[in-house]
Amino acid sequence: MPVGVQGRGGRCSKYLLSLFAATNNLPQLAALAADTDGIDGSEKNAGAWFDTAVRESGQATALVPEKFLSAHDCYGFFAQLGALVETGPTLTNVNDFRIILLDK
User: Fold this and answer.
1) What does the DSSP 8-state code read for residue 84?
2) What is the pLDDT of residue 51?
3) Candidates 3.40.1480.10, 3.40.190.10, 2.50.20.10, 3.50.50.60; correct CATH number of 11-102?
4) Which residues pair with residue 73 across a beta bridge?
5) What Rg do the C-alpha atoms of the chain give, in angstroms?
6) Long-range CB contacts (< 8 A, 24+ apart) of 18-21?
7) Short-list 42, 30, 29, 46, CA closest to 97
8) Among candidate residues 18, 45, 15, the one with its CA nearest the CA of residue 33
9) The whole model's pTM is what?
C-alpha cells in the first residue's frame, strides 16, 4: 500500500469487492467471503456478502466498486450497503471461507 494510504478491510472483503466489480454482468450471482476468526483485516467484521439486492442497492446509490478498491476501502463499500458479516471473535482461525452461488 502506498505511503499515507490508510486502508479499511482485509483480504476477504477485498476479494469479494473484486468479485463484485468483475461480475457486474451477472446479477444472479451471490457470494460471501469471511475469515473464520471473526476479524477480516483492520476492522471488526469477519467479511462481507452480496446478492442481487445488495448489487441493486449499490447501483441505486451510485457506489463505484473500483473507486473503493483503489482507495483500499472495501470495508467502507460493504458498510454503506449493510452487507458486512459481523460475528465477533470466534477464537478459532481455521481459514478463510468463501462461497459463490449462481441462481439460474
Assistant:
1) E
2) 97
3) 3.40.1480.10
4) 8
5) 13
6) 18/69, 19/100, 20/50, 20/55, 20/58, 20/65, 21/65, 21/66, 21/69
7) 46
8) 15
9) 0.90
